[in-house]
């Protein structure tokens, strides 16, 4: 568990799932990331995230964190990094009630610092739906540059038509 300013970041655990559902199981959160899952599928995705990459996914490492407000301990979002091929694919999901406060930006900064300090990845990548302006705005404010999809390395979070953003270290 890490206390960073107003936030607590901790590795995702099974016991976080009900609180994460309160924060994130909503149409707004899933509007641009595949559509609203059933509650069972929401839980299943987190169970699989905690279990880690399947054995055939050689070389992949998944890092998942739950984000809480330090003062109230309220769960407000989650961060993930899929590390492979000397790069990290990053993703961030926050409670819509708290969008517009800069919390996700601070979470992304924290995650990038973790990766710089604890891994040897050489670049950060993120994929977003073209209409997901909050996500692309966050990435651009943090120095990510949109790159042409032709020639990018394999990205497991990429869906056809996504915009791809990269930040080199
Ligand atoms: C993507 C997502 C995390 C962005 O959340 P967000 O709150 O808009 O992002 P930020 O933390 O960068 O906040 C930016 C807003 O806070 C404001 N802000 C206030 N203090 C700030 C600070 N210290 N730093 C940055 N922004 C700050 C900005 O001006 C901006 O305001 P605006 O929305 O009125 O333009 C959120 O929309 C989300 O969870 N979406 C659903 C999941 C998703 O699609 N994830 C992306 C793909 S994995």
Structure description:
It is a single chain. With 169 residues, the chain is α+β, with helices and mostly antiparallel strands. The protein has one domain: Aminopeptidase (3-Layer(aba) Sandwich). Helices cover 30% and strands 30% of the residues. It is built from five helices and eight strands; from the N terminus they run E-E-H-H-H-E-E-E-H-E-H-E-E. It has an eight-stranded mixed beta sheet, with helices on both faces. It is globular. 25% of the residues are buried. The mean pLDDT is 96. Coenzyme A is lined by residues 29, 32-33, 91-94, 99-105, 128, 132, 134-135, 138.
Taken together, the total number of domains comes to 1
CATH class: Alpha Beta
Task: Please provide the count of β strands.
Answer: 8
Binned strand content: 25-35%
What is the mean predicted local confidence, pLDDT? Answer: 96
Count of runs of 4 or more consecutive helical residues: 5
Instruction: Say which CATH homologous superfamily is assigned.
Output: Gcn5-related N-acetyltransferase (GNAT)
Alpha-beta classification:
alpha+beta
Helix coverage percent of residues? 25-40%
Distance between the termini: 25 Å
The major pleated sheet works out as:
8 strands, mixed
């Amino acid at each position: 568990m890490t206390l960073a300013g107003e936030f607590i970041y901790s590795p995702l655990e099974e016991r976080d799932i009900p609180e994460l559902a309160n924060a994130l199981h909503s149409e707004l959160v899933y509007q641009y990331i595949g559509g609203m899952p059933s509650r069972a599928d929401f839980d299943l995705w987190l169970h699989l995230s905690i279990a880690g990459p399947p054995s055939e996914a050689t070389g992949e490492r998944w890092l998942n964190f739950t984000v809480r407000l330090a003062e109230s301990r309220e769960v407000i979002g989650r961060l993930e990094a899929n590390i492979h091929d000397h790069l990290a694919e990053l993703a961030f999901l926050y409670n819509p009630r708290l969008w517009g406060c800069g919390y996700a930006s601070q979470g992304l900064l924290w995650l990038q610092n973790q990766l710089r300090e604890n891994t040897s990845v050489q670049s950060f990548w993120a994929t977003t739906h073209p209409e997901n302006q909050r996500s692309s705005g966050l990435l651009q404010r943090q120095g990510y540059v949109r790159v042409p999809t032709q020639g990018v390395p394999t990205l497991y979070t990429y869906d056809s038509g996504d915009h791809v953003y990269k930040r080199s270290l």
